[in-house]
Amino acid sequence: MAGSLQLKPFLIAPSILSADPLAVGASVDVLKGDFDWLHVDVMDGHFVPNLSYGPAVAKALRRRYPDAVIDVHLMVEPGEDFLDMFLESRPDCLTVHQEACRHLHRALSKIRAAGVRSGVALNPATPVELIKPVLNIADVVLLMSVDPGFGGQSFIPEVTEKAVTLCQLREARGLKFLIEMDGGINAANMAQVRRCGVDVAVMGSAVFGTPDPAATVAKMRLLVDGE
Ligand SMILES: O=C(CO)[C@H](O)[C@H](O)COP(=O)(O)O
Predict the structure, then answer these.
(1) How far apart are CA 116 and CA 91, in angstroms?
(2) Cβ distance 35 to 14 under 8 Å?
(3) Which NCBIfam families match (predicted)?
(4) pLDDT tens digits for 156-173?
């Protein structure tokens, strides 16, 4: 499939959801800077049935890693109500869910107006068609390949079709957004993820759940380069 799709450089985004909750900074340090984006999952116990990090953690990560590309994924509802507090933490990318925003166009516009890359996320059951009208103001489309809320779940392969559709739409409309995929990505499905046009792979347990996370990231890069 890669032959027929225009692929951009492939980026790896470790998710701190699977880092040691008592030593997130130390867990990230173990990667020795060998990551492209640092993915921060924010969960509210309402849009998703779990709680995770708040803006203080996002701010602390920015202080500790001033040059890292920090990618904040808001799994909160209503998404619009949390933009200011996370924009204050100066992320590089701030993503809201289509399903959690009544005024998605306004939310994405506000993120961009703050000089931050705007992201829109879709749950596995949400079709790409619902975000077609806002693709021109999205810098990132995040396709959830698990139902959001927890790390360590199994990859839903049907979501790869949505990446192919997005890739084709991007090309047809001359747009530049990146396609990010999140959930259940590991060494066994990494090549499949890349082939369907994904630009950014988020990985939690497949990185932080291994004895040597830095070696795991290096191995993932080799897997993709070998494609
Ligand atoms: O957004 C998330 C869950 O809602 C996580 O980023 C995602 O699940 C990553 O963890 P894993 O790679 O272990 O599936």
Answers:
(1) 7
(2) yes
(3) PRK05581.1-4, rpe
(4) 999 999 999 999 999 999
What is the separation, in whole angstroms, between the first and last Cα of the chain? 11
To test the pocket of ligand 1, the residue of 123, 150, 220 to mutate (highest count of ligand atoms within 8 Å of its CB) is: 150
Q: For residue 7, what pLDDT is reported?
A: 74
Q: What is the ipTM of this complex?
A: 0.96
Domains and CATH numbers, the chain: 2-225 (3.20.20.70)
Closest CA to 141 of 110, 114, 176: 176
C-beta of 50 in contact with ligand 1 (< 6 A):
no
d(CA 166, CA 42): 25
Q: Work out whether strand 69-75 and strand 140-144 pair parallel, antiparallel, or are unpaired.
A: unpaired
Q: Residue 55, preceding bond cis, omega within 30 degrees?
A: no
